[in-house]
Design brief:
binds fe (ii) ion; globular; oxidoreductase; alpha+beta; 4-stranded antiparallel β-sheet; single chain; binds 2-oxoglutaric acid; Jelly Rolls; endoplasmic reticulum; procollagen-proline 3-dioxygenase; metal-binding
Length: 694
Amino acid sequence: PLTSLSLTLASLKPPPGSPEPPGPPEPPGLALLSPGAPPQAPDLLYADGLRAYAAGAWAPAVALLREALRSQEALGRTRGLRGTLRAVLPRAECLTQCTARRLGPGGAARLRVGRGLRDAFRRREPYNYLQRAYYQLKKLDLAAAAAHTFFVANPTHLQMREDIAKYRRMSGVRPQSFRDLETPPHWAAYDEGLELLGRQEAGLALPRLEEALQESLAQMESCRASCEGPEEQQGEEVEEVEGTGSQGGLYEAIAGHWIRVLQCRQRCVGDTATRPGRSSPVPNFLPSQLRQLHKAHAQAGNLSQAMENVLSVLLFYPEDDDAKKALKQYQAQLGEPRRGLGPRKDIQRFILRSLGEKRQLYYAMEHLGTSFKDPDPWTPEAFIPEALREKLREDQEKRPWDHEPPQPKPLTHWKDVLLLEGVTLTQDARQLNGSERAVLDGLLTPAECGVLLQLAKDAAGAGARSGYRGRRSPHTPHERFEGLTVLKAAQLARSGTVGRQGAKLLLEVSERVRTLTEAYFSPERPLHLSFTHLVCRSAIEGEQEQRMDLSHPVHADNCVLDPDTGECWREPPAYTYRDYSGILYLNDDFQGGNLFFTEPNALTVTAQVRPRCGRLVAFSSGGENPHGVWAVTRGRRCALALWHTWAPEHREQEWAEAKELLQEPKDTEEEEEEEMLSRDSSSELSSHRLQRVQ
Ligand SMILES: O=C(O)CCC(=O)C(=O)O
Ligand SMILES: [Fe+2]
């Protein structure tokens, strides 16, 4: 539907009579352009924005595009409004009112956005236009930011790559200009603060860390405020209160409503601590911020502020040893106790309020049977009714986000473990922007890659001769896909179709990868191979122009990824028992075909790996490592894909069968041939024996 540009523009202007505001400074992120105003439909705003853009009306284009983004974001937050109709109170009226208040007349129905447009927003298309409009307005800093924001989701966009290179050369563009405008302010400030602190720049880090904390509290506050409306009483947390329809139902309904408001408010803590695109909150988000602040203040020599922050940490964790030690030290340094020096007021307020709410929620849990998932690990035990403690402790253990996320292992750890000679750690998890990822090089010699490539080729050739024409890839019509299992390789070797040496090497190499993966990621718990697959993907000639698809769409290896929510369901049809994945590459003489990791939104690329002979990329198989493969647009890309499991019952049976097949006695002629073949590569193979380093 076409609305006229002037109509929508008019609605962005201040109401008649109110003074024209002085040119407002551009907010750093996607802050509200007109705070409090109900958002317009994003599709209409976007259409108008594009029209303004096409007409060269840069300022209105910027205003409309930003408003479209804001509206789309607001819409995302209120998705699922219909679920609220199940709510307890006879609230039809309230529903209309609240909806009208938040979304303007017509509510969500008016704002429904088609799938195509939703995808455009997901691909961050508006930022491409924003970038150019900002450029025309000579707002280079914002232009660079918009360009970066677009590029994060579109890393293969060549035009944007060039534009960014140009921006880099312009004066007026700083390295900090290249920021992601979709990152909420508290995350941006937090990341920057941490980075500065890591570089021992406490003075610069402090304002950012303080801002991060303030913004986090403000974010929580605005989330809490939205709990009053009916929108939030939805989703799995909804707890129907019994007996609504009966006499006395009103009392229960009101209690139920209040409980839901409290549940919603408590959830705001977790929401604020969750990075966009992630499925679980950063554990202990507020206490960790306070710890960083206390560290930074101490580094900068602000003793009393360091003390205020450490006292605030102690409000969360009164028995925290590090905090107690630091406190003692500051007290000694400061001399006699200073009056008025206590924990931060904002944190005191937060904790008092939070505890008050928890008390009520636990009461309801005990006496009304409602549920409450405490978002915090710091709740004092005294607050939890005794009858509930045992059960909660169990639940707690099942909740992954209450434990610290796996820390990247320091290099020293790696040096201590069994190493293969010649293998190097090229990139660790930190360098790959993840928690459990690594790139190792030197696992295969060029000769070994050659043997395995030949094996793949011979096996495919045999297939072709028997009428099997290398099938099209299950992932894309533009590639051929050949897969060879270890058992098939052993059988083909037995029948003389492929060389025995290749089949044997396949087994040996898979064991090599298993040893390294176990040593690196799971030194305390044995890993077993659950599946080994030699896979080649070949570009089909003449079908590569304008190709938009991937060689392997973004997925996680042991769960079903839902990019809309960032959740990953560890249930069939996923191979749920896979714990670690490894891809060992055999060649690099092809075009495209890089492996890439993304955020759980399946859009934002966080790291890339270029295949080459002997390079292993290994990573945990869960939702923390969504990955895909760019289109292979020329040539043939071969790799050994291996999945490891902690579950012995899922150990690859075929591996043992293949091993047996290859060991069975053969006639002497074969044996001789075998010996000759293996002689020339035996020196290389033996150099790969396991050695203990250090
Ligand atoms: O070949 C690659 O680089 C990745 C393949 C992959 O992700 C898979 O097979 O699950
Ligand atoms: Fe995969």
